[in-house]
Amino acid sequence: MSFIEAKDLVHEYIMRDEEGNVEGVQVALDHLDLNVEQGQFIAVLGHNGSGKSTFAKHLNALLVPSEGTLYVGGMDVSDESLTYDIRQTAGMVFQNPDNQIIASVIQEDVGFGPENIGVPTEDIWARVEKSLKAVGMWAYREHSPNKLSGGQKQRVAIAGVMAMEPKCIILDEPTAMLDPDGRKDVLAAVHELNKTKGVTIILITHYMEEVVDADYVYVMDKGKVVMEGNPTGIFSQVETLKEHHLDVPQITMLAHELKQEGLPLKDGILTREELIQEIDRICH
Amino acid sequence: MLREITLGQYYPADSPIHKLDPRTKLFTTMIYIISIFCFKGPAAFVVITVALAAVIYLSKVPFSYMVRGLKTIVFILIFAGILNLFMTPGRELVSFWKLTISYEGAKNASLMLFRMIYLIVGTSVMTLTTTPNQLTDGLEAALKPMKKIKVPVHEIAMMMSIALRFIPILIEETDKIMKAQMARGADFESGGLIKKTKAMIPLLVPLFVSAFRRANDLALAMEARCYSGGEGRTKMLPLKYENRDRITYVISIVYLVAICVLRRFPF
Ligand SMILES: Nc1ncnc2c1ncn2[C@@H]1O[C@H](COP(=O)(O)OP(=O)(O)OP(=O)(O)O)[C@@H](O)[C@H]1O
Ligand SMILES: [Mg+2]
Hints:
heterodimer, A: 284 residues, 37% helix, globular, B: mainly alpha, 2 strands, binds magnesium ion
């Protein structure tokens, strides 16, 4: 069994009026199938309203499936008795850095999760130190979150999840509200956790550049997985991506257009270096 | 102006006052508040001032931080001071034009000013040296007996610490919305009371909407981190009395006794 296994997953939001009568049904996940292996770095793409956040909330048992099944680390998310085990296994980082920091001092916030799951006091401190060091925020442990930049706050939020020692972290557009520098720092911290600690990462994002280093990419549209593959494979299908209202990284776009103009470049060029190499190859 | 509210602003430093147990600090602050409201005579005044000065010195928090809390209420202070000064009937002290200052008025005004200022500065010492979490932990422990009569003590404490965390964020947001509305021609300054109140509506509506959205997000984030109420939680900073706390309890009781004695025999 894979670490995360979604089969025929359906989620319907039911809208009710004031008396509780059903007003409408919004299908947010529509028979979604998806597998993730332990230790992978997965990216999930999709334009607004494609159901990414809804899916993310299922992984953390914040929402339960209307139909179908979802297993996280071998646990069924529909089983209420496992809710807290699932949340401990799969931690979640949200978009807005301000709205997920609970305490007024960084280290106390990082300790919040371990406190909730009843970790003994000394162990909490050890975990706080380890997680803050892992995201490079140890020096700020006694600061107030209000004085940090967005990228720093987001790294604290990641440390807060790390302190619960999850096997997997789901990040729902963690960089959407950050400036380019903050974005880079957060991405670097996430990659570091994936490489050194073997934490499975599920990164939901709008930024194509952040997908380039992923092991595997899922593209969602209207609650379904419409494309999947490694980044090179995905980005070589520029036209299909456009159909799903997604842009490709600028470099890939440039290569694609050069190719359409007749340059014999290969498909799915993701980085500037690759493009330079390809052009070099052609010229010689 | 809004940024100057120091309520719940922790000032990190390594001082004996910072190290005290929050319950001790709550108790001492209570004693202090009682003392400034029931003291009598200049000797007691000196005792209170020396005690406050000693604590401020020990806390290693810059004095300017302590008085920052006063800035926001300067207007109220002046207003209440003037009212007390001129409106209290009694023996005439000085008189000019149509105004008279009575002996009692001068006394009332200065007493009132002293109490307000000492109250704010004294409680600032506590909030500046105690992290909001410790403060609410202390409150939770102090209110624990009320759990027996089904008061949700843990939840109240958690609400307080979250409120303290979000005060600066909401203040900043108010500032932002205000500027955004002013950029579109909103006018918060001119007009009478009614016009000014009406001008607040386009400020309050977006503020409330955003506060509810934040509350929703925060609740999700807390749930995602396995929060499920006070049951089965451990503490990162468990409350534990040390010798310094015992000493502080003794000192504050001696202090209260001294104030009471001076009340009976004021000089
Ligand atoms: N609480 C809710 N009640 C009703 N409908 C909802 C709710 N949350 C989301 N939806 C709907 O479900 C669909 C999927 O939403 P979701 O938030 O999962 O999309 P998303 O891919 O995360 O979008 P975005 O990129 O904007 O974050 C959307 O059509 C949305 O309107
Ligand atoms: Mg979303």
